[in-house]
Each structure stands twice: as C-alpha cells, then as structure tokens.
Amino acid sequence: MRLILADDHNLFREAVCYFLRQCAGDIEILEASDLDGALVAARRGKPDLILLDFVMPGMDGAGGIRRAKQEIPGTPIVVLSGNISEEETAEALRCGATSVISKELSGDALRDALGRILAGERIVAAPSWDRRSPGGPSKTGEEPGAVPPFRLTPRELDAVRLLVRGMADKAIAHELGIAAVTVRLHLYHAFQKMAARNRLDAVRIALQAGIAG
Asked: What is the pTM of this model?
C-alpha cells in the first residue's frame, strides 16, 4: 500500500508515519508539508490514498480538495484535521473528500479507519464537535459534566500529568501501557490545545492551570 501524508506540523507527520510503518511492513508513505508537495508526490507515486491536513500551506480547505480531485482523479482523498467544524466537514465531503478523520484519534483507531477507507467505506471519525462523553467520573477524576483543562482528552491529560512529573516519553508509555509514538501524539495534541511551544512551556502552563503531576 502506498499513501501520501501532507501536514505542515513535522512532529505530528513524523509520529504518524512512524506508527503506520510499525503497523504494516508493506506500507510506503510519501511525506509532504503542503498541498503542492502532496500533488507532486501523487503524480509521481500513484498512491492508494492521500491524507491532507485541512489547513496548511496551499490548502484553503474545500478549494484544496477540489484542486486535488481535479489533478489526481480516482485517488481517495482523506481530510485529516485537528480543528474542523461540522459545516466544514460537510463542505469537504461535498467537494470530493472520501472521508474526514480527526487528529484526536488514537493511533490504533487511525490505522483501522484507513483500512476501512481503503475497503470502500466513508468514514467521518468523531471530531471534537461530535464527541459524546459517557456518564460518570473519568479515570482522571473529573466530575461528570466537568470540562477538563484545555479540553484535553483523558489520555492527553494523563500524559501531561506524567510529563509534569518529569517523565520521558518511554516512561510515560510504560506507565500508561501504550506505545511511545502514541504518547508523542497525545502530547502533540495537548500542546496544541494548551498553546505550548515545547515540553518546558507545557509544564509551566500545566502547573499554572493546576494540573497536578
């Protein structure tokens, strides 16, 4: 299988590529940081699937999807976004996107979603506007109905709390029983929500917000 992943956030792109390559030995991933690079790679590589960030250089949302559909007809185009509204999702699908999936998905969920898309399904994987929280306290101790700090998911909050304790990615992974690459994805999403520039900045913001380690 050959796919193209275009995203201008290097850490996120590299983490996703690493995870997918570990999951499947027969996968080939071509990387790009903007729409033009993705289309050049697609013309050369004839991919089975193109993953496009909804907001990145050269990608003006729906217009970028239309351009990709025109230049690479017949290739499924999947929007991968960390911040897309319900209206934008509907527009992306109308403009020709095969599916829209959220960057908030876990690594395993992303892998499964891609497999289903390649099998011909249309996936709209729960972005933040469509999440439903189960009743009862979360494993991190928030009361029912409480909004977690920075709207972090339970796993993101777990990872940040362990980061505040000074733990490295591998130690956090061992503590949570997940892969280190999944920890990096959780922290990437958390840093975006917290507007943190780096790990040290994230710890500072977490302590100011009362996120105990």
From this structure: 0.63
